[in-house]
Structure formats: C-alpha cells, structure tokens
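Entry for the shared binder. Reason: the reviewer on the internal report wants the predicted structure included alongside the sequence.
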Amino acid sequence: MLRETKVTADTIEEAKQKACQELGIDMEKAQFEVLRQPEKKLLGLFGGSPAEVRAFYEVTPLECAKEYLEEILKYMDIGDITVTAEEDENGAVITLDGENVSYIIGHRGETLDAIQYLTGLVANHVDQSYYRISINIGNYREKREKTLEILGRKLAFKALKTGQKTALEPMNPYERRIIHTAVQKVRGASSWSEGEELQRHVVIGPDPDFKPSYNKNRKSRSNNFNKDGSYNRRPRSSGYQRRQYAENESHPQDSVFSTFERESMNESPATSLYGRIDVKKPASEE
C-alpha cells in the first residue's frame, strides 16, 4: 500500500521537506518524483511557477497497525505505553509495556480483545489479505490459555466422576477451541458447542460412546482359596507398603484416563480472540 502527497514550494528541496512533514516520515524513507521544475519570474515581476514534488512510500500492514494502535492509546490517556512488534509467519505480535498497562486489559480481557480486533481490521485492509495481529500485555495471553486448559481438564474429570454435564459461559471461537482441545485429552470426556453467535458456549460431559476397558488377566477372588477350602491370606507386614511403579510401568488409572489426540468438535481451525471462562449457572440457581 502506497502513501503519497503532492506539495509545491519555491525549490525542489523545500518541496521534499514539506512533503515528508505531511507524511510524518524521514526523507531517507520516502521516494520523490519531480512533477514540475521551478521557474523564476521574468524581471522578478511576471510569470514564474513553484516546484511541485510527489512524495510516496510503501506502508506495511504492521506499520498501519502500530500507527492505529498508538493513536488509540493516545486518546485513552493512560500514560506512556511502549509499543513493540515482532513479525511471524502469518502476522505479528504487538507487545505493550508501561506503568498503567493493566488498564488496557479490562474485565476478563474484553478491552484488550476489542482493541486487538480493531487493529487487526486496519492491518487486513492494507493489502486486502489476511494478516493476523495479536496484542499481548505481560504474558496475559499465555496465562489465559493455561487457565482455560486447566479449566477444561478439571471439568472433564468432573464429568467422568459425576456423569453430569457442565455448561460454561459464552466464549469466542479461539477460547472454545482451547477448551475442546483440553477436554479431548481426557479419555471418556466429551465437549461440544451450543448456542448462536454471542451466546455460543461450551458444554462438557461424559462421552456416551466411551466404554472403559478392564484387565481380563485379573485373578478372581476364588483363586485365593486352597484345595482344602481354607482361605489363603497374604501375610501382613508392619506399616504401610507402597507400590513402586517403574518408569516403563503405567499407573492403573492410565487405562481409563489416558491422553490421546483427536480432532476438535464444532470449531473452526484459526481464530484470534478471547472471552470468558466462568461456569454457566443452572436455571434453578439463578
């Protein structure tokens, strides 16, 4: 995307400087095209014309995003905020640092999500192509993702224990996908999405198609009896004996609660916003 301006001045050099001031860039970054050479007035009184110069430079999606974000932060009036950016394969990660930077996060990250969404729209309009913008503050995104993963696994084990399902508060697609991925690592639990648009939320419950496997080689209780009918009891030992598991030996519970990978349910693969993580209260408790 090109940004350009046309200016006139008495000399070409003055026109270049004036054009760079209007664009807000240094002269080293701009390119110039002389549209008209200056002409002196005849006898110092008649005719003559000023120089006209066209100045332009290529602007990237990241530059547009940073300029827009800095403008928003300026109007928020929260003090000096340092904006740094690092590009990756599909876009860029913008990091904000400052004394009052926590005010930008807002309640459950809603303010940060809104700013990120608007900044992403600006970046995508530069080349009319997808350019992902992620705004992070003090590793907030990483902490948020970890919290969602823990919540998903916790409710998955709860579903296995109680056999009941739990509905969460509405979330954006990216957060719902994090929950789905965490639940799918717990064998025997399942998750799906319900609701429409802003009310779409995740429900976690037991997997109806799951059948726990049992150890067929386990000896029956009848094998503990001797031929004469007496019961063969194991000798008691003093104190408690704890079974030691070797490194290559799995815990008995692993046969039921083992982890494995499978596709997410009801979610699209690439999204970039954040939302809530509260458990949705049943109608009877409201």
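Summary line for the report: Strands lie at 2-9, 31-36, 51-58, 81-87, 91-98, 132-137, 166-167, 189-194, 201-206.
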